[in-house]
Amino acid sequence: MRSRSFWMAKPLSRFVEADRSLRLASFAAAAFFFFSAAASELSAQSTTEFKPKLMIAYGAYHPRKQQPTIYFYQHDGESRGKVAGEVKSEPKRSDYHPSLSADGKLCAFAAELENETSRILVWDLEQQKLLELPDINKSPNAQLHAAMGGDGKLVAFAAWRHPESDGRWDVLLYDVGGKRRLPLPGLNSQPLDERMPAISADGRMLAYCSNDKAGLGATDVFLYDIAVGQPIYDERLNSSRADIEPSLSADGNLVAFTSDRRGGEGGRDIYLFDRATRELIPLPGLNSVAHEQSPSLSADGRYIAFVSERTVGEGERDVFLYDRQSSKLLPTPGLNGKHEDIDPSLILLP
Q1: Residues 192-245: tens digit of each pLDDT
Q2: In angstroms, how far is CA 92 from the centroid of its own chain?
Q3: CB of 66 within 8 A of CB of 345?
Q4: How many Cβ atoms sit within 10 Å of the Cβ of residue 13?
Q5: Do residues 19 and 100 share a domain?
Q6: Same-domain status, 248 and 292
Q7: Residues 98, 144: contact at Cβ < 8 Å?
């Protein structure tokens, strides 16, 4: 004869099974709701219209590993970006150190065919062709480090022993619209080198590097007021080491540059100088123990594109984007490749 407990166990087990089934059904419904909501959110994000706020021109050793190609990358200023074009390359021609006009319509750069000296070229992004600029390369010697300013009206560059200049490396200025070279009285000097120019978007200020003995270090950053033809030197900007690669805000008040001065995070670091206060502005989270170089400052001074050799990048050297407002590096999906990415030029899109 079966015990009473046996007859009670069966209906009790049925109750437990029913309760378990109800809980599983509730869990499944909740999970379905959660994942459906997440999928809907991701779908909404993926279908949201991409609105570019920034453009970066940069040189990349991909797909060509021997000669760099110049690409144009658009970014929304937060986390999304995409490659949006390139300068049409030629076989055995290296294109490097691009510089965008403030309106994003033109890009000046240095180009060097194999076994020839480097030339200054200007690419029209709308017409997808090179501009005809007579006399800009009127020299048998090297010309490089192009810099656009004045909303594409001006191109500054460094020239080696130019026939119409003072001697070694000199900074020259070219009027794109007038198709002629402009004078820079008092800037270049025969025994010294003036290189690495940058121009403010308003076309008023020009920054450059010089080994002038009047400076503090081996190489210093100088400024030049184009309107009055006057060099400007600030010892609080410079150090006893090498200060190079200046980049200017739209009004020329902020100067981003590279330095190997003592007290930095690594061998070379990026610094930002405020000419009004004559003080360095902190850049928390930008520099690393590796080398940082080639800064490009946005017109409003908020963003800095730069090159770093830190190990977290895609290749040996990569282009990074820093937001001063959040003090963070921004994601740049699709920008860097497995090889080197260098020489960024950053603008705010209209």
Answers
A1: 999 999 999 999 999 999 999 889 999 999 999 999 999 999 999 999 999 999
A2: 25
A3: no
A4: 10
A5: no
A6: yes
A7: no
Judge if 44 and 63 occupy the same domain: no
Q: Does residue 193 contact residue 168 with C-beta atoms inside 8 Å? A: yes
Q: What is the rounded distance in angstroms from the CA atom of residue 222 to the CA atom of residue 243? A: 10
Structure token pair of residue 178: 């007038």
Q: How many structural domains does the chain have?
A: 2
DSSP string for residues in 166-224: SSSEEEEEEETTTTEEE--TTT--TTS-EEEEEE-TTS-EEEEEE--TTSSSSBEEEEE
Structure tokens at 243: 């200060």
C-alpha closest to that of 197 among 127, 272, 257: 257
Query: Of 81, 89, 90, 88, nearest to 127 (Cα)?
Result: 88
Cα separation of the two ends of the chain = 92
Radius of gyration of the chain (CA): 28
**Is the pLDDT confidence value at 26 over 60?**
no
Residue 331: which of 16, 82, 101 has the closest Cα?
82
CA–CA gap between residue 184 and residue 179 (Å, rounded): 16
Query: Which amino acid, one-letter code, is at 150?
Result: G
pLDDT of residue 239: 96
Amino acid 165 reads S
Please give the order of strands across the beta sheet that includes 230-232. Answer: 194-199, 205-210, 220-225, 230-232
Alpha-carbon gap, residue 7 to 223, rounded angstroms: 98
Please, are residues 122 and 133 in contact by the beta-carbon 8 Å criterion? yes
Domain range spanning residue 26? 1-48
Q: Which of 250, 238, 255, 339 is nearest to 295 (CA)?
A: 255
- Verify that 22 and 68 share a domain, yes or no: no
